[in-house]
Fold this protein.
Amino acid sequence: MNDREERVIAKGKKIVVVGAGVGGLTAAICLVLRGFRVTLVEKENAPGGKMRRVAAGDTYLDGGPTVMTMKWVFDEYLAGAGCSLDDLVTLRPAKVLARHWWRDGSDLDLFADIDRTAEAIAEFSDEENADGYRRFCADSATVFRLLQRSYIDAQRPGPIELSRRIGFLRPDLLFSLRPFSTLWSALGNYFSDRRLRQLYGRYATYCGSSPFRAPATLMLVAHVEQDGVWLVDGGMFALSKALAEKAMSLGVDVRFGEMVDGVRFSGNRADGIRLASGEILSVDCVVFNGDVSALSTLMPKTGSPKPIEPGNRSLSAVTLCAKIRKTPFPLAHHSVFFSDDYKDEFDHILNRRRLPEDPTIYLCAQDRKDGGDGAGNDSERLFALINAPADGDRVKFSDAAVRGLQARMVTRLAENGFELELEPSNLTVTTPTDFERLFPGSGGALYGRASHGWLASFQRQGARGPVPGLYLAGGSVHPGPGVPMAALSGKLAAACLARDLGST
């Protein structure tokens, strides 16, 4: 079917997209470009979803994702609107990807340049581990190339279909994905230095998982970072705002501050939504860009997907958005302070369902670029994240527990020389309970289903919902969490919807 035929089929057909996160924004843009009449409904008063802007005293900062990767995802679908991502926001490539500290005082910078990182690892550890890093980069690039068009940017396959796409007659390629090895065990083939295994094991947390249970396939994240990490001027909220403005300029009717109370049906087909105000929006199809578990409260139990059980949820977090006095400590834009016992940390979170006693701390100093000391102000903005169990619908994380975690964070940072002072008036704390309120049905899980075991990625919902007329997007469905992956889910939902309507 050519573009003209597709637009004829789409003409006059109405679609409602629920949720203005990056998946919903992408779906809306892709659908309006195909000729559909699109309404985008968002319960908050601004776009972004998890790309949210949070107050800290008299300033604002990103309270979710902090950088862009896989820029090609946006460039490909925005080409249909005659533009690229660079036309919507100002991007600057990051040279320093992250700065890492351990309690023993050792530290290591990772760079966008592979050779520069290898030199840093040789100085930090030894030449053997630097050679291991080069092999790790080469193998992660192979994994990404195998999965880019067969899995990541494709409708969700099953294990057999994925094998067919890659090639049944090339078992060497299939086994290079290492689906049956954990990321932690695979890292032992590259790094004898346990600190480096801890550093690269952190890639599992990018999809809310434990490196001791997630498949080694997640090593592809290394290639994603090497392929380009960008800082967005104005923060990631500027990206969601720009996408919303582009959607509106293309004709999408965007309605903020509208809570969806239910999905409506005609027979067994979704044909509209009911707003909390009582208003009914009757449409031809619905695209739901929320946590897939929330559908159980929005549609009949017999037709809704089964909510993700707490034990299968991804990580949640306790986050702190703060305005602090500018510090001489050499923070990079991204800094990580590791715990002593990584396995025990994940045991606390995933097995004991408790906040960690010795947490790994991720910091984003949002006014610092590439390891510099930031602007010449007396203050700076700091975002902190500590992984936590996704039990926000079952447990109220008490003020005392959160204060205890905050105190442990401050103590941990001080052990590396960073004396952090937090003023309550310049601080916003978000717990798993708060994330459950922001993203209903999730339990506070920030990444949908955890990627534990080789089958987990195939257990995510695909673009087609459980009933005709209902399509799914967002980080809880295929191909997974993260800004570019959620965008791909929106693109895939739009393509699936258009194909289904065209076939009828």
In short: The longest strand covers residues 316-325. The chain has a mean pLDDT of 93. Residues 140 and 219 are 5 Å apart (CA to CA).
